[in-house]
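Memo to structure team: turn this sequence into structure tokens by end of day. - J.P.
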Amino acid sequence: MHNNSGECPNMIKLGDKWILIYGAYKWVEYFVENFDAETLVFTAEKRGVVDYSYGPTHPNFWTRGLYATYTFPDPNGRCIMFGWVSGFEQDRGWHGCLSLPRLLSLDQEWNLIQTPAPELESLRGQHRHIENLKVEDETIRLQWVDGDTIEILAEFARENTATMGLRLRCNGTRDKTVNLIYANGILNIAGTRVPVDLDEPSNALKLHVFLDRSVIEVFINDGRSCVTRVIYPSPNDLGISVFSENGSVTLKSFDSWQMESVW
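Reply from structure team:
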């Protein structure tokens, strides 16, 4: 093992590379490795974060997000991963749920890419679409877009050094709003900070968000980074807003779907 505090290991093969996924002290990590069949030795070549669920300064180590991952191949040769989502309030009678199924792959630089399984599109209900919305140092409530079980695809183009993002589950008290805020190379998702490079040359930020009552899963820039969090907004706060501060951004595209039940 690379870290004596790791647990719940998964060893999988993607292409000609072996991937070790395991739960570390702060978050779920991965190593891309070469395997020498003669010496039976794995050599790590790249290290990364599977999901920034906890964050390095999370106030309670056991209040988590995604953990205890499980991977398996499906009949179509895809590698699928689930995780255990924990960190719910006590005295609910249960604790934890499964994450959405994610497809795993490697890009040309051996970064682990995670994308939601396309079968999830079968849950899509009522659809709303917005494009090329200019946001200039303001917060704009998106009309006819709200809910607590909703899928969102949003792409931003930043024209300068503006702070930008989404406010989810908003209406009432600001402290219960679920904020996704990008500024200075950091995307802050409900308090979890993730280093994010904008896509060049358009300074684009892509967010694929799934809200399911008390759970949020965010896939950043086509799955290059992911965050899973348990959230506690007020039940009646269902609004969604886009905002910028200290500059202008363009919401190039925004699509939302009400998510239907799997049952």
